[in-house]
Amino acid sequence: MALKRRQWASLLLAGVMAATALFPSAAPAHAAAKADAKKTIPATAATENFYRHVNRSWLNTTQIPSSSSSVGSFVSLDDAVKRDLRRLLEKGLKSGADKGNDSVANMLKIYRMYQDTERRDAEGLKPITAHIKKIEAIKTIADLEKQVVDLPISTLFTFSVSTDFLDSNRYIIAFSSGMTTLPDKSFYDTQTETGKTYVKALRAFYEKLLTLAGNPTAKAKSIAADAIAIETLIADNTLTMEEASDMANLYTPTSLAKLDAQVKCFDIQGMVKSYAGELKPSATELINVSTPQYYMALDAIVTEKNLPKLKNYMLVQLLAQKSDILTTDMLRAYEAFMQTISGASSPLTIQERAFYYATGLYPFSAGKLYTDAYFSESAKNDVTTIAKNIIAVYEKRIRALPWMSAATKKQALKKLDTLGFKIGFPEPSDVFDPLKGYTVDATEKGMSLSATIDAMAAHAVPIYFARLDKPVDKRTWEMSPQTVNAYYNPMNNEIVFPAAVLQAPFYSPKQNASANYGAIGTIIGHEISHAFDKNGSTFDEKGNMKNWWTDADTAAYDKLAKALVAQYNATTIDGHTINGAMTMNENIADLGGVASALQAAQSLRNFDAKAFFSSYATIWRSKQTEELNELAARVDVHAPNEARVNVVLRNIDLFHTTYKTKAGDSMYLEKSKRIVIW
Predict the structure, then answer these.
(1) Phi/psi at 571 (nearest 5 deg)?
(2) pLDDT interval class at 380 (50, 70, 90)
């Protein structure tokens, strides 16, 4: 069901699904470094591999921390921010700031409760024993339906509150497919070596949880097999990552009554009412089903024959989704699974996990602590000026596009003119807080951590669904200030730059202006370009999905986009060939970001092209485990960082002029093949 522990917490963290981020979520990197198996990179000319030319020393000397799967500019800054914020949390505990009832106090209570492993171990599975008994008592499909609603986890389907693609001022209910632990349908395909590897790791994780829950080995194996069988059925009827990267595929409007009539196995309308309460007719007349193929297949999944397997699936999901907040042994099983998937060789400390958990539930409370202590108002002003300069350049670039007609240019310029931007941190009134009014009881007489999280979810759900009666508040931030990232939201037509990203190596008043434009400037240009990538270009200046293109302009754009896709399809990094279609929107944004920031930088008094390009290559330096490379190749809509530098710069005329590339150089691309989209 929607907005259970993991889902509602992820909504707090991630914002609307349409927000387009610059960088995938940074993996935490702590503890002692582990040896890097990659070979030493020899001296490399700028004309052969610019990414390695600039970053060679760093790549050869930097090691991936043992508790992480990656290291790089984004991850390292994210680590530094988290360390600073964690110190603030520790200071708050020492000063007694957890004694009150405000959100900061509640966050500190969760931080302390999570670290109380002695209590968690003593409680064992008691916090979920009642849930286990309810699952065991399922005898009919009707019983199953009740537990899909009642259990504090996401299972056979989910629904949440989202912005309507066609009317960005309206909230609607959005239905998604059932819960799977692995992130992509291809990972369940055991006909491939990758699928075999991931399913084997998943099976081991489930079997470990089940034995810890008291099941004999043979029974644990059987239950785990049933759960994976159901997950495979769910995954088979979901979108691929490439399909999901096209927002048009995520919008299928219908009514709750029609969905209810289509799905025979469950009383969908009754389940929504039971979970979200009595809703006004306007809230059910229009809904979005993001995975219609799943709901067409649901009757074939939820059958009397499959009921034993469905019960086992429910049990396993309960254990898996609760594993990190129950006993130490279950947490270790969870960590071992994550290490297998990511390639990290050691787990995070309990303090680090507690930090991520607490600040994940209260992201903007944590952000207020961080910005009060560390944010520079001058950085905000400087970056605002850079953003305005790049927007002005973007206007010139749109007017000069040779492939776009005057009619479409007029609409594009209207969208650019109304583009909003949020920089730094939100005002308190611009934060949606579904936990407002909830008080955490962290005393010995209080509930367990698991029960507390369930109660928080129960408190948050009606607050989420109350938004259905209100217009969308476009002032609301979707990314917390301490996040080292940025995003474009097509339904708000805005770009957002949290406070944490406004510092070195992305921005610094101590580095020359050309370097700043090569770093934060290209990030700003990247996010502006998302307004005009293949997804963003389907939304108008008001944030509504609307075709404002002529057919001829659409064809011209598609031709350019396909040419860029071909460049990435022809690129292999770390043994993985890039999926140009899946990464297309991010690649278009990278190219447009560099082109626009570069043109803006050229108006600087002492423009330094080499400083610009070197700064751009520096912000994308990174190293990942082979396991994470494999995962990213299949699910990350961003190209590998080396390609984000080299493929983009091969299309930039000034790069070739600056470094005097010539035919035969790996970085050389003949002028007629260089792509300019925005």
Answers:
(1) -110, 130
(2) very high
507, 520 contact by CB (below 8 A): yes
**Under 8 Å between Cβ of 643 and 573:** yes
For 181-251, where are the alpha helices, taking DSSP H only?
193-212, 217-236, 241-244
Please identify which residue in the block is written with the tokens 């279950």.
330
Which regions of 280-435 does DSSP assign to beta strands (E)? 287-289, 420-424
Structural contact between residues 458 and 515, judged by C-beta atoms closer than 8 angstroms: no
Q: Looking at residue 651, what DSSP letter applies?
A: T
Six-digit token pair at 641? 């960082």
User: Cβ–Cβ contacts within 10 Å for residue 99, how many?
Assistant: 10
Residue 448 CB partners (closer than 8 Å, separation 6+): 119, 120, 123, 126, 127
Q: CA-CA distances (angstroms) from residue 141 to 44, 146, 260?
A: 64, 9, 16
d(CA 327, CA 643) in angstroms, rounded, equals 42
Cβ-proximal residues to 361 (8 Å cutoff; 6+ apart), any chain: 9, 12, 107, 110, 435, 456
d(CA 332, CA 347) in angstroms, rounded, equals 8
Torsion of CA 59, 63, 65, 68, to 10 degrees: 40
Residue-wise pLDDT for 548-604, tens only, equals 999 999 999 999 999 999 999 999 999 999 999 999 999 999 999 999 999 999 999
Contacting residues for 545 by C-beta, under 8 A, at least 6 apart: 165, 166, 247, 248, 251, 538, 539
Looking at the chain, the number of H-run helices and the number of E-run strands are 29, 12
Question: How far, in Å, are 50, 168, 534, 569, 574 from residue 577 at the CA level?
Answer: 19, 37, 22, 7, 8
pLDDT at 3: 29
Segment 648-660, tens digit of pLDDT:
999 999 999 999 9
Global pTM reads: 0.91
Q: What is the pLDDT of residues 583-597, one digit of tens each?
A: 999 999 999 999 999
Q: Report helix, strand or coil for 576.
A: strand
Pairing of strands 171-176, 158-163: antiparallel
- Rounded Cα distance, 483 and 78, in Å: 7
Q: Sign of the C-alpha dihedral, residues 467, 472, 478, 480? A: negative
Helix axes of 217-236 and 307-322: crossing angle, nearest 10 degrees: 100
Instruction: Tell me the C-alpha distance between 434 and 70, whole Å.
Output: 32
pLDDT band at 21 (very low <50, low <70, confident <90, very high): low
Say if residue 23's pLDDT is above 70. no
Residue 499 — φ and ψ, nearest 5°? -55, -40
CB count, 10 Å around CB of 228? 24
Question: What is the per-residue pLDDT across 230-264, written as a single tens digit (0 to 9) for each?
Answer: 999 999 999 998 999 999 999 999 999 999 999 99
669 CB-near residues (< 8 Å, 6+ apart): 650, 651, 656
Of 365, 324, 322, nearest to 348 (Cα)? 324
Count Cβ atoms below 10 Å from residue 281 Cβ, excluding itself. 9
List beta partners, residue 158. 176
DSSP string, 57-99: HHHHH---BTT-SEEEHHHHHHHHHHHHHHHHHHHHHHTTGGG
Q: Which uninterrupted H or E stretch holds 51?
A: helix 50-61
Is pLDDT above 70 for 19? no
